[in-house]
Amino acid sequence: MWGPVSLGLGGSVLPLAKMERYLQTGAFHQARREAERLLQGGELSVEVEAKLLRMACRAAYSLNDHYAASRLGGLAVEKARNANDQETLGLAHFDLGCALVEIGDTHEAERNLLAFLALLPQMTGTDGSQGQAWIKLAAVYKQRRRWDQAAEALESAARYVESEGDRSQRSQVALELAWCHLLRGDQAMAAPQLALVEEHLAEQRNDRLSAELICRKALYHRLERDLTASSRLCQELFVAGRQGVTGRHMAEATWIMGENALDLGQVQEAGLFANQSLEYATRENWTSLLNLAGDLRRKVAERITELS
Fold this sequence. Notes:
By secondary structure, this protein is mainly alpha-helical. It is built from 15 helices and 2 strands. The protein is elongated, with a radius of gyration of 22 Å. The termini are far apart.
């Protein structure tokens, strides 16, 4: 994401080669320490401080320290604005927006991501951040259950990702698009996205994407009222030792199994699946599934009340 950066320090020019190398090679702990060292050294211009804070924000985000990333990103935005450095300001808005998505502050996340997109004409060297910004905006709208807006954001993301030629990333966006279409009950719109992923996987193996495709196809068949096919697909993910299966896949598959069980009148089984889905979704901090599994558990409780 970052091009070469130089800092004015004490009237001289200090290249941030070490910071850039740390970030590019995944040495994020070292990057944070280096940023702290430089910031504590004093005699830095506001523009320099903005650049360092933004890079420290990205390092913290990459370490999953999202609250620290939010704090550092907020400081970077403030410093970059004071320095009238539009390039750093835009990138700081992007990094801050990404961190805010992770901590669930959807209002501020949306504001910062839209600010980044608005500044794009004044920026250079964003290196794929446009597509990622739209993906993160989609995550904001999914947390709010605004599936139409999420789908629109993902369509924008797909255009950027497709132009970059990253088929795995394009397949991931397609799966997210299918998710939005399916949750608003539009199987016809979801089907081409699922077909796109199947075509990619026929040419290139990817166990994680395969597991996610199984989840989406299971939901597709559920909405088509083919509960047998839906449940059979979910059960593929329950096989011990299956490669590529994550907690998110398990959260989704157990939720679908619970909904299927409830439709079949298997109320106790539906309750067990709802609890399993909530447990996985909580572990994964997946808001959409927490909501869906919670809804399922409420429906199970209502059905038990009706039967008693």
